[in-house]
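Quick start: what a row looks like.
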Amino acid sequence: MSTEYIMRCNLSSGAITREEIPVDITSEYVGGRGLAVKYFSDEVNPKIDPLSKENKLIFVVGPLTGSSAPTSGRYSCITKSPLTLTIFDSNSGGRFGPELRGLGVLAVIIEEKAPTLSYLYLDAENETYEVRNAEELKNIDTWETIDILNSKTKKDARIACIGPAGESLGLLACVINDKGHALGRGGLGAVMGSKNLKAIVVKGNKIAKNPKLKAISDELHLALRKNPVTKSALPVFGTPVLVNVINELGMFPTRNFQEGTFDDAPGISGEKLKELYVVGKHACAGCRIACGHITRINDKEQGKGPEFETIWAFGSQIGNNNLALICKLNYLCNQLGLDTISTGNTIGCAMELAEQGILDSFPKFGETDNLEDLIRNIAHKKGIGNELSEGSRRFAEKYGQPELSISVKSLELPAYDPRGVQGQGLAYATSNRGACHLRSYMISTEVLNNPIPMDRFSSTGKAKIVKVYEDLSAVVDSLILCRFSSFALSAIDYARLLSVVHKKDYSEKDIMKIGERTWNLEKIFNLKAGFSMKDDRLPKRFLENPLIVGGSRNRVVELDKMLAEYYDVRGWDSSGVPTKEKLHKLNLSY
């Protein structure tokens, strides 16, 4: 196994250094999410204020990033979330990841706080590594920031940056690269803002090719071209292909999850988006699936997306059937640096408060005339936007209705009502970063029948499958590959790829153990931060109130039964704490 490195950047002093990564760490955690979780857990006190200078940001890639491996164009960032207060990772596609790998490191660890608004310039071609002044970029949106920094540095450099939302320290702020890819969820943009870090500009060297890796990669690319999801559905319609599918099953959250069916779903579907507004396609670096789309709603407004989650968040969640407006709000959030899922979900929470007469002078469901101004106010923390910028849980609690925040560990739910998918409900509750479909994408097996069909209404046996997906997802995020690769590839395939780049044989069991180790280390961090089994819960709406109509009606989530089984399958005690025996097997301690 060849030596890997990290780069450490102190924003206060401007010092930038390079360190070797111990071989046992890359062997046990690989790279990406696993590597960053290891470093973060070792170096950061779980009790810190996420917006203090003691927090760290770890931008990280994997050993396959920028290689011939399928979907290897992504990167991740790990920090402590100011929204959830958990350890938090997010990953993004586009072209930034391979450029970061071109620095010759697996991770860039960002520490302390810059005295003034700054950007980090990392140029391996010219061996220039500097913290530079960015005062002229104050309150500039992400798209313009990228253009300005490309003109000031190198036109082919890749840039990840925050917009006004991050600078104002709003908890819904994200990090944008390539004008449409996001490190979304969890308020990572606010952490960058708290460090006076406007952007990271990266220009890497070319990544050496590996003939042995290419031979395996070519074989796995063929597997992706044979799978119906990665061969047809995603390339043709992108993720919005799910709108009609999920709506027909009666689990398309509508009006803040009060209903599971949206009558106007066909009008905001992937099919309708392609018919009216799609003008081109785009792919992340090295990806042959090419699920991304360029949309245009008029001569002046165009951009990437919207994706399925965004269509839902600014569509059925707030009672809006105007697809052009959804596209416009998507562009606006990308420019301002706002997470679309949490932003739309929080607005939906406020709309329900307005419907109940608790919130005055706020739009109700379907009232969309002033949404653009509202979103700008969230980004700049003006008026009621200041309150909404804190996320739905804090907002709903302030108005005495905490149950109207549809969130887990303060992270707003995405676009699948768990009353229609029992396993996904358990995955939301147990996720280490809060409500997230990507920790364990049970939709794959419960709805898409991939790789095997499971009864979506049954809770039997779901705990074991949720754990498998959680561990596998942690491995995929450590390599780092796109989650869509797992529609066609297995743990054995990932083991083959890692064996080539590490020059060490990995089995399927080895791969899954790496994922399990990462998951348990995240759990330990959260326990030290003060979380417990009481946080592995769903909003009571899903536990007590069945949907009235639609294909998922008359059901609630059977969480308690699945949760007890999940703790047992994980090798944790009945209160959700990893046992000494389990941690010993994973070479961990607590």
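That is the whole record. The first helix runs from residue 23 to 29. The first strand starts at residue 5 and ends at 10.
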